[in-house]
Amino acid sequence: MNRPPVILASTSPYRAELLRRILPQFEQCAPAVDESPLANETPEQRAQRLAAAKATAVARQHNDALVIGSDQVASCAGRILDKPGDATQAFEQLTWASGRPVAFQTAWNLLDAHNNRRWCGTDLTQVHFRHLGKAEIHRYLDREQAYDCAGSFKCEGLGIALFERIESLDPSALMGLPLIAVAAALREAGVAIP
Fold first, then answer.
1. What are the two backbone dihedrals, phi and then psi, of residue 176, each rounded to the nearest 5 degrees?
2. How confident is the model at residue 1 (pLDDT cuts 50, 70, 90)?
3. Among all residues, which ones are annotated catalytic?
4. For the chain, which domains are there?
């Protein structure tokens, strides 16, 4: 029996790069999901809802595939830190996060579309920012424009210099896809992962 295709329900180059660490061949498909937050939804609930919605949307188009959906929501002191989009918003987010912990809820969902089986989970990563001066934030943003990243930084790049510490069970979760849990679910679904 042939292994079903694996599809990443995301066009994110970051998630694709992560998944390539454990799975050399997979497809990517845009999930076309409305990512607007719902009223009274916690960051964890939002991440879980969107990860499931992305996997489900792509599985509707590929009913023989294993589909991976993922979503990440960052929050700090009661405020959601979405992708900033530009330097002004990134500066504002990093100023807000300075000296504070930022919680990253990274939800994942693996849907076996053919057998209607689902595996899912959520990783909580706490990033503790050191106190950042305005000049430090400007220097960082001049060197690394992380405008398409929740929280306005790339921990796999220069952004690591902004932190005091990171608390996580899976370091890949902060980059957008918890590989330890996803690899375990793929193995359960019959994919040979070393």
1. 125, -5
2. low
3. 71
4. 6-188 (3.90.950.10)
